[in-house]
Amino acid sequence: MFVDISEILNKKNAKLSFDISEYISTNDYKPNINEFLSPVKVEGTVVNINKEFRLTAKGTVMVLINCDRCLKNIEYTLNFDIDEIYANTGGCGEIEVFDGSIIDISSAVKKNIIFSLPMKVVCKEDCKGLCPVCGKNLNEGDCSCDTSYINPSFESLRSLFKFDEEV
Ligand SMILES: [Zn+2]
Ligand SMILES: [Zn+2]
Question: Could you list the residue range(s) of the whole structural domain that residue 144 is in?
Fold first, then answer.
């Protein structure tokens, strides 16, 4: 994803607005994201601050990710922010470098999409998850497995969950 900043390249304090909508490949994002359902939309500005360029933007994209309990695909809208400084003079440290008058924001987009992913998403609040024995999706009905036996080492975990439910 590219932003052409030629019109502010040599104008100190000049500001440029941009608006990009582009499909990106999912391969780079596996296993976190299964699929992108919409183009990635990024809207923001670039300001020329004495030969450094501060790019701030808001982005959004709809993705398919797995339910944390039953692994079903869920549509989820990710919203992310970008705040990055670019320099084409061979900046150092935290500054991203670019050539000519085109800034490639792909790595900033990727970084912030990954960062915006929620730790856990469930398809519904009371998702029953998968049977620990046969793997059946228990939202689609019960299986005939005997799950009354609980591995003693999970006993403490189980009481934690119970405690959670009561709160
Ligand atoms: Zn689920
Ligand atoms: Zn089962």
Answer: 128-167
